[in-house]
Amino acid sequence: MPTLPRAAFSVLSCRLISAVGQRGATTSCRAFHAISQKAAVAHPITAHGPPPKAPSPAPEFGRLSEEGKDVNDAGKPQSQVSKPSSTLEKRFWKNVDVRKKPDGEYQVLLDTRPIRTPTKDILSIPSTKPHLAHAIALEWDVMTSARQALKNHLIPLTSLTARGGDIAQEDARGETTTRDQIVKLAMRYLDTDTLLCWVPERNPYAGEESEEHGERPESLREAQMRVAKDIIAFLGTKVWPGVDIVPILDADSILPVSQPRATKDIIKQWVSSLRPHDLAALERGIVASKSLLVAVRLVVEWSENFRHLQRSGQKKFGIEEAAEASSLEVRWQTDMWGEVEDTHDVDKEDLRRQLGSVIVVVSGETRE
């Protein structure tokens, strides 16, 4: 068998590999194009006139010249544009006055414009509440800007009076939407009334605490029972005679105990029959004190519509008494452990502000 030279064998091998590679490329490779086969169409120019100018920066971002003046890209000084001041940052009225209308109701005027409610209605104060009108005027007279009128904690009397006016307008139209909402709120708070939530009794095996003089201090449960029984006794004899009000927390359970059905029906009917301003004040008192019973006692004690139930010659149930009844547990804990600055002290003053607005709104000059 003839033997091929080594050089010829290497040349033949290279040709064979090249032929096989070309055959595989023709069968498995495809053309790949990055440019569309369709040529682009040049549309006609429809714009007329010179090209637009280059954008220039806003006046507040203009460049400063060597003299310290704002200049544009062309080097010309730019006109100073003053930033418009918000009308809410200043007080747009000078004087606050109280005007009595021919029908006897009062209006509070900012110069010559009456104060309006969030529903754009003129705020009207009943003829039997002149002190309320002057108190609302004082709220607006101490303001330094219109923005303060948007904060409810600065206008407690204005907002509460507007709420009572809205209820009165609904009553005139024969609607009960707001009344039904407040009644539902009141009955829901009755199921978890703060006044009726007492701490469990002391463990009989726990040691007795004593002061320096050997006397045992009043426990939290005893203080809660003392305050609650006084309010319950007043409501059970003056407001809802014969109604049985029971504590809502059992010693062996964390779930509240519901009041008797007869008690709920009587309280619900009484709340739904209140006058508009008394109902609005009751709502705020409930939300502030977390207690329906405390709010009812406060409203009955000061409302002009319950003169026949108020005790003459005796100390009234006022702001301090209502605040103590609704925050007895918090005060007991802060006396033991101390207050948290900007928390307990702020809540304490805010509670008294809201309870005070309840007293001012329900009071009046109506006699028996």
What does this entry look like structurally?
It is found in: Mitochondrion. It comes from Aspergillus lentulus. This is Protein atp12, mitochondrial. With 368 residues, this protein is mainly α. The chain has eleven helices and five strands, in the order αβββββαααααααααα. The strands form two sheets. A three-stranded antiparallel beta sheet has the order 3-4-5. It has a two-stranded antiparallel ribbon with strand order 1-2. α4 runs parallel beside α7 and α5 packs across α8. About 4% of the residues have low confidence.
How are the elements arranged and paired?
Blueprint: H1 6-28, E1 63-64, E2 70-71, E3 96-100, E4 106-110, E5 113-114, H2 130-141, H3 156-173, H4 177-190, H5 220-239, H6 261-272, H7 276-289, H8 292-302, H9 319-326, H10 328-337, H11 344-362
Antiparallel strand pairs: 1-2, 3-4, 4-5
Helix pairs in contact: 3-7, 3-11, 4-6, 4-7, 5-8, 7-8, 7-11, 8-9, 9-11
- What structural class do helix, strand and pairing data support? mainly alpha
Summarize the amount of helix as a percent range.
40-55%
For the secondary structure, the number of strands is 5
Rounded mean pLDDT score: 81
Radius of gyration: 40 Å
SSE order, one letter for each helix or strand: HEEEEEHHHHHHHHHH
Strands side by side in the biggest sheet:
3-4-5
The number of helical elements comes to: 11
Strand content: under 5%
Cα-to-Cα separation, first versus last residue: 144 Å
Silhouette: extended
- Uncertain residue segments: 23-30, 79-84
Largest sheet: 3 strands, antiparallel
